[in-house]
Amino acid sequence: MVVTADDKIKSSLMRDGSHLKYTRSYAGAGAGLMAGGFMLGVMGALIGAMLFFMDMMFQGIVVVAISCVIGAIMVVPGVLMKAKRLNAYMDYYVERSGYSREMLEEFDREFANGTVMLFSPGRTLSTENKRDAAVLTDHWFKLPYMLPLKYSGLHRVEDMAAVFYEAKPYINGQKYDPLLFTVNSSGEGYYCKSPNKEFAESLVSEIAKRNPGVITVRKITVDGKNYDCVTQPAEVAALFRAAREG
Asked: Could you tell me the residue range of the domain that residue 206 belongs to?
């Protein structure tokens, strides 16, 4: 499902005016502790209520008290950890993406004020599908399913040397489920799952409109030499840079 985001959709995908901060706000250890603490409190209350109905009032009070205390012990540090995570969201993206703070702020401005295409992995634009969607603006692209851990999944479109889809990819002899691959101009290769062929092909097509020099297949031949974008990302990126500069 491909949607051009209106202001309402954009607003649901931003936190304090930033899509990057929104992305950084979900999941994480702090959120896990908070969820666990709340769940423990709810479970304790339910068990306590059952004990009350069984005329075991004292035991019920003990269960509720203990679960609430432990739950609070989990929630408080969870809140602090999440606050710290959000306060440092831009530093996180600077480290993971390789882009400067100014460039990342440019992405957030473009997301807020420009045309934004969302490539949803589902047939509806549910909260989960919006969160997992690929994001494409005039000059920026964010991979789908990007819960940013080791890397950001964020690229300037002009920095993309290759982007392509494979339904049955083999990497180092191992078969994978359908994947979307990217190679940036620095020679770093990334991949993520892709829900279907139509999703990936529409995304690749839109990126190619914005960056006509991007490579959209896995294997290419240049001057009689074969290159594989998956196993030779640095070489492919060098070819892309040479073509762009030449």
From this structure: 153-246
